[in-house]
Amino acid sequence: MIAVYAHRGLHTVERENTVQAFAAAVALGVDGVELDVRRCVDGTLVVHHDPDIGSLLIAASPRDALPAYVPTLDEAMGACDGVLVNVEIKNERGRREAYDETGSLARQVVTRLREIDWAPRVIVSCFDLATCAVVRSFDEQIRVGWLVRDGDIADAMTKAHVLGLDAIHTHFKTLSASTMALARELDLEVNTWTVNATKDISAMRDYGVNAIITDEPALVQTLVRATSPDGGPSAMQ
């Protein structure tokens, strides 16, 4: 059964990556929610996609300096109760990003997920392969997926397999019948993003991906569940 994940919550009706967006997605009946986690200068884990909010750099700001709509990781997870969660760790090199080379951010996220009893219901992902490797080495049980934008997807799948990761999270345009066959051979789940158009949703459904991460969860639910005999969740668990 293909799982349907609301990308940053149901942000078509609420501000993305907020408690309200996550609660709305849960109310819609999605299988899961995707969210982005960052760390403030005071060590607080918060949920926000971009490294900055206006002139504020999250990594250089304390939690109480951020707008009230920015939830802590704990608050966000609380709003997602009842569904699965794809926790993306934002740890990249780039403009205004605060790249953590030590692995401490990844370990802190996993530790907190354990402490609030969410570890069995999440898959942790990151575009940074080293961060995925830290998560896997720190916790052998928690599910881990490597986010891949483009490039040699077959090579990426092989690397993920060698590191003992559970999934590859790849842009839908990288997929083909042959790469799906390779993923199955390597025993990797394929969770694809960000799939919004009817033709692309149908193509991912026909490929048999494990999960679709989307800005249009209601549409994906309709197209995916219409062809399913049971309509239940489940892939990224």
Gross geometry: globular
Beta-strand portion reads 15-25%
CATH topology: TIM Barrel
Global structural class:
alpha/beta
Oligomeric state, counting identical vs distinct chains: single chain
Task: Provide the spatial order of strands within the biggest beta sheet.
Answer: 1-2-6-7-8-9-10-11
Q: What's the alpha carbon Rg, rounded to whole Å?
A: 17 Å
Describe this structure in words.
With 237 residues, this protein is an alpha/beta fold. It is built from eight helices and eleven strands. It has helices at 19-28, 73-79, 104-115, 129-138, 153-162, 177-185, 198-207, 217-225, and strands spanning 3-7, 32-39, 45-47, 52-53, 56-57, 84-89, 122-126, 143-148, 167-171, 189-193, 211-214. The longest helix has 12 residues, at 104-115. The chain starts with a strand and ends in a 12-residue tail after the last helix.
